[in-house]
Amino acid sequence: MPLILPEELENDWIEPYDENLWDKGQKKAIEELIQSYPEEELKAHTVTRLRGKEYAGNVPEISN
After folding, report:
1. pTM of full prediction above 0.85
2. Half-sphere exposure of 40 (CA within 13 A, CB side)
3. Contacts 24+ apart (CB under 8 A), 22-29
4. Minimal CA–CA distance to 33: which of 2, 3, 54, 53?
């Protein structure tokens, strides 16, 4: 499952892992980042299939 982070937490997520800090709160800090993203902030979009049975062929939309 993908992780969706608010932009302000991106740098916290990519901080290097330090094995010496794991027992000193780093594990807890990482676990606090892994939360469900607020559903009201998500948007759903219907898309057409570009592959499979109803494949549209070699069309420019595939490159986008």
Report:
1. no
2. 0
3. none
4. 3
Please give the Cα distance from 47 to 64 (Å, whole number).
Answer: 12
Q: Residue 64 has which token pair?
A: 């986008």
Neighbours of 7 (CB within 10 A): 6
Assess contact for 17 and 26: CB atoms under 8 A. Answer: yes
Query: Could you read off the pLDDT tens digit of each residue along the chain, which spans 64 residues?
Result: 678 888 888 888 888 877 777 777 778 888 888 888 888 988 888 877 666 666 656 667 666 5
Please tell me the distance from the alpha carbon of residue 34 to that of residue 32, in angstroms, as a whole number: 5
Cβ atoms of 35 and 23 within 8 Å: the answer is: no
